[in-house]
Design a protein that fits this description.
By secondary structure, the protein is of the alpha+beta class. Helices cover 16% and strands 33% of the residues. The protein has 12 helices and 38 strands. Strands 31-32-34-33-35-36-37-38 form an 8-stranded mixed β-sheet, sandwiched between helices. Strands 1-2-3-4 form a 4-stranded antiparallel β-sheet, with no helix packed on it. Strands 5-6-7-8 form a 4-stranded antiparallel β-sheet, with no helix packed on it. A hairpin with a 5-residue loop joins strand 31 and strand 32. The radius of gyration is 26 Å and the shape is globular.
């Protein structure tokens, strides 16, 4: 069976949807679609419009060399997006700015001209021309955008890249924090006028470090003047989340309160005209997150979570209160699921949520009056990015292991209608089958088994894929870890949810808490045992693979069993004590293990027991699992397993300019080529073939 998954060039060229917004009248959605650029070394996003009626074709709205992202609609139906496209009045060297495409047609116009760019749209008022955006400003600028431009010009002129930190953390996932800080800016779109040729920023003067006078930088008068509503934020807004009231005067947000290492999330309201902040909920050892604001601006809903300790994870509680913090109360008290997102239904009497559940991610309706949670969708899909229009139309993105993300409309009774998509769903070479077993403690453990659809020749070789997180579930499509590519090569792929996985209740998670190498490991072995007992699986040809926490588990598996003919470990935790002090969020990781749990579940202690060939993969820009983990793993493999000439069956695929995920398409291709070459050698008894692009 020939599909795009039979050829890596065809696969990486498949268009993919990664964002959605719905117009206020509910008649259309805007989708961001990523496509491969001309030289095949990056993806470029554009925005498409799709009618929610389901009876018309998609229409492309934007086209630029820099691409677009972060879509949102104004109350008039104008489309807002972030893009680094050239501004005719400012040149083409500015970072991404906010742009507006009129609902009536015509050309998109810039809304901002910020030297540090716009991060994204935080909220749009439904009854006013107000929008809140995130933007990075240098601390010395004091919230003044003109001063920020001046200082950036001087840094650039002297090629200064140094960053002075005054608090923890200093990194996040794949990027350095600082020297700038995230602010929230208020923009009045009613002030957007036609461009003037006399108001451009004097960027040459700003960069002239020998000037004896202060460079003249004037923010363009034809653009809405940004108002900083979060002066002196420090690192407290790095992960700000929120929504604007209908009149645009109040911003509901979760912000950080500094602690010794990091922040705790608190729920606040901010007056967008004065910047005055009112703390609604702030508790020691508790995070308040995922805020949602009702359509009438009177009610808030959020997730309250007590911090985890080595004793176990805590429930993600859903709470509601008045916008002034009055009458707080918990709802959905009997619902043993963790919401991925919350959004108010059109009548404001309930909220809609998605949550992992049994290898899917359905849509749920949660009544505010404390009534029973109702499951809206009952199928094998995972839903995300719920959006509710003013007239009640509900749209979302959905995916499974059989199909990538695509837009849908969801009716009140749970009926789901697939909308037209500018990224047609590709034909896949595999089919899904649900599998399960009973763990040694009597717990049900389930997963998905991807089987090739072609006739094949006899039982299939099996790849055990272990998900990351560890708090996660194999419940929807991934472009980075895609089992259909393995199915196209004749492999069966097992995607299990062991202890620590979400979607099975708090007790299931806590079976593996502070004991990563115990129940998660025995669950994986138990469900592998069940699958290899099938007639269509070849028990003698198996391999185990994983990334991040999955890489940790792959390392643990390698040191505790010889049943697999190969191990692939990507971005993996290897030495827990070392990792816990070097990761970008060490306060969290050190809080979930005690000394005994860390020592008993440290994979590097079993390096001498490894017998399976191991392919180590790591990116140098990975700050969540720093490169030191991969380097130490490789060093210790050599120490214990290299022969006198330094030869060993293991391999190390290193990406100097990739992060936790390996995002560049040419590197993703190299990743898959290397993985499949390694598996072919050790699982299929083929000859080792070094990928051509690796030299």
């Amino acid at each position: 069976m020939t599909t795009p998954f039979s050829d890596l060039d065809q696969y990486i060229a498949l268009p993919r949807i990664d964002g959605i917004a719905v117009s206020p009248d509910g008649q259309r959605v805007a989708l961001t679609v990523s496509v491969l650029d001309a030289d095949g070394t990056g993806y470029r996003r554009s925005v498409w419009a799709v009618p929610t009626s389901g009876d018309a074709a998609p229409a492309r709205l934007t086209r630029s060399a820099k691409g677009e992202s972060g879509v949102a609609f104004t109350r008039h139906g104008d489309l807002l997006f972030v893009s680094g496209r050239p501004d005719a009045d400012a040149g083409d060297d500015l970072p991404g700015q906010l742009w507006s495409l009129p609902a009536t047609g015509g050309e998109a116009r810039p809304v901002t001209r910020l030297a540090g760019g716009v991060g994204g749209v935080l909220g749009v008022a439904s009854a006013a021309d107000v929008v809140a955006v995130t933007a990075d400003l240098l601390p010395a600028a004091g919230g003044d955008v003109d001063r920020d431009t001046e200082i950036r010009g001087r840094r650039d002129g002297k090629k200064v890249r140094a960053i002075l930190h005054e608090s923890y953390p200093v990194r996040y996932w794949d990027h350095d924090l600082g020297p700038d800080q995230t602010h929230v800016l208020r923009l009045d779109l009613g002030d957007l006028a036609e461009p003037s040729t006399t108001t451009a920023v004097d960027t040459d003067a700003a960069a002239d470090t020998d000037a004896t006078t202060t460079p003249k930088t004037v923010y363009p008068t034809h653009l809405p003047r940004p108002v900083d509503v979060t002066p002196e934020p420090g690192r407290t807004l790095d992960h700000v989340d929120g929504a604007l009231s209908p009149d645009g005067r109040t911003l509901l947000a979760t912000v950080g309160v500094p602690e010794a290492r990091g922040n705790r999330s608190v729920l606040v309201t901010i007056d967008t005209t004065t910047g005055a902040r009112t703390v609604l909920f702030d508790d020691e050892g508790v995070d308040h997150e995922q805020p949602a604001l009702s359509h009438d601006g009177r009610t808030v809903v959020w997730v309250r979570t007590v911090r985890s300790t080595p004793a176990g994870a805590q429930q993600h509680e859903i709470w509601t209160a008045g916008v002034d913090g009055s009458e707080p109360r918990r709802i959905a008290t009997e619902w043993d699921r963790w919401p991925n997102e919350l959004v108010f239904a059109a009548d404001d009497t309930s909220v809609l949520a998605t949550a992992d559940q049994d290898g899917r991610a359905p849509v749920f309706r949660i009544p505010l009056d404390g009534g029973t949670v109702e499951q809206v969708t009952s199928d094998d899909w995972a839903y995300s990015s719920l959006r509710v229009a003013d007239n009640g139309v509900v749209v979302a993105l959905r995916a499974s292991w059989a199909a990538p993300m695509h837009p849908v409309r969801i009716a009140t009774d749970g009926t789901v209608t697939a909308l037209a998509t500018p990224a047609p769903l590709p034909e896949v070479p595999g089919r899904l089958e649900e599998v399960e077993t009973t763990a040694e403690d009597g717990t049900r453990v389930r997963g998905w088994l991807v089987l090739p659809t072609d006739a094949g020749n006899g039982p299939r070789p099996l790849l055990l894929w272990i998900h990351g997180g560890p708090l996660g579930s194999w419940n929807q499509w991934s472009w980075r870890w895609n089992p259909m590519l393995a199915a196209a090569k004749g492999y069966a792929v097992l995607l299990p949810d062991p202890a620590l996985s979400t979607g099975y209740g708090l007790d299931f998670i806590n079976r593996g808490w502070n004991a990563w190498g115990q129940a998660p490991y025995t669950d994986l072995m138990a469900i592998t045992d069940a699958v290899v007992a099938r007639d269509d699986i070849d028990e003698t040809r198996t391999a185990a693979m994983g990334g991040s926490f999955g890489g940790y588990m792959a390392n643990w598996v390698a040191g505790h069993t010889d049943r697999f003919r190969a191990i692939v470990t990507h971005a993996s935790l290897w030495a827990l004590e070392q990792f816990n002090g070097t990761t970008d969020a060490s306060d969290y990781w050190q809080s979930i293990f005690d000394a005994e749990g860390m020592a008993q579940n440290d994979p590097h202690r079993s390096v001498a027991d490894i017998t399976s060939p191991v392919l180590v993969i790591h990116g140098d820009k990975d700050y969540r699992v720093p490169i030191g983990e991969g380097l130490r793993l490789w060093s210790e493999l050599a120490e214990h397993h290299a022969d006198a000439d330094g030869r060993m069956p293991h391999r190390f695929l290193y990406f100097p300019d990739e992060n936790h995920w390996v995002l560049k398409p040419q590197h993703a291709k190299v990743w898959y080529e290397t993985v499949f070459a390694f598996l072919s050698q050790h699982v299929l008894d083929g000859e080792w073939e070094r990928p051509e692009l690796l030299g």
